[in-house]
NADP-dependent mannitol dehydrogenase (Penicillium subrubescens), 276 residues
Amino acid sequence: MSMTVEDSAPGREGFPRPFPNTPTNVLEQFRLDGKVVVVNGAADGIGLAVAQAMAEAGANVALWYNSNDAAIEKSQELASLHNVKSAAYKVDVSESTQVSSTMERVVEDFGKIDVFVANAGMAISKPILEQTLDEYQKQMSVNVDGIVYCAKYAGHVFQRQGFGNLIVTSSMSAHIVNVPVDQPVYNATKAFVTHFGKSLAREWRDFARVNIVSPGFFDTKMGAGPDCLNEAYRMSSLGRQGHVKEIKGLYLYLASDASSYMTGSDVLIDGGYVLP
Ligand SMILES: NC(=O)c1ccc[n+]([C@@H]2O[C@H](COP(=O)([O-])OP(=O)(O)OC[C@H]3O[C@@H](n4cnc5c(N)ncnc54)[C@H](OP(=O)(O)O)[C@@H]3O)[C@@H](O)[C@H]2O)c1
């Protein structure tokens, strides 16, 4: 950053960089034919909808799951429905060695990774005064350690390849102190995720884009529970939770050439929940 106009006057070698060689037709920009996309937390919910979006756009997709082996059948379905290559991998993202070895297995199986969607997450929604330290550590291990491990090992692949694209699932709870259930640890893990993603956008500026998606309540296993369902309807300007089909287009946009000038952005998609 320059401190004065004089400081900023000298040009920098290689700048401005050229515009990317991408299609001008917007629907062509959204195509992902021949790309390889990895999605974790892909057996169900937002992650499955994202994996479907990528396959619908022509990408080969690697579905990572932890405990829900429905991902195996889902990946077979995607391959036959969309004529793409797809495979499922069992990976606990809180285990760094599983993340690093599976990252390399995907590269061996698919040849490269164009996009990594770090979407796995979990919540134990309780006030800190009622939360055990084990519950705190568990959330940190998946939502913080898991994102760091996935980003680090995907980043090594991106750097080696000279290209890449990381999309991170954060939450509106990184923006607001969500109500009515107190869940400070979950909120703070997602604040980490958002700022970590923005920081990587700068660190990886020469070879990869990084963007963040911050969903409001979506109707999944991690959506509004019984204690906050009515408040979720009240707070959302649209008066409901989102359906996962309403978020997949955003991930596709971020994964595709349609967003080639976008990095370091954090996109809220919450039906207007954080407006008041
Ligand atoms: N739904 C919402 O209202 C909402 C709002 C804001 C943010 N989010 C975020 O959206 C993301 C997806 O959640 P969702 O709503 O789609 O709920 P979901 O269907 O329960 O997805 C959560 C996923 O995380 C995976 N996961 C949990 N622990 C893991 C671990 N140790 N290793 C690997 N994967 C693990 C789960 O995999 P398995 O099932 O295979 O164990 C599951 O697929 C999460 O990061 C969540 O925080 C959701």
In short: Residues 40-41, 43-47, 65-68, 91-94, 119-122, 142, 146, 169, 171, 215, 217-218, 220-223 surround NAP (CB under 6 Å). The longest strand covers residues 209-215. Residues 23-218+244-269 form a domain with the Rossmann fold fold (CATH 3.40.50.720).
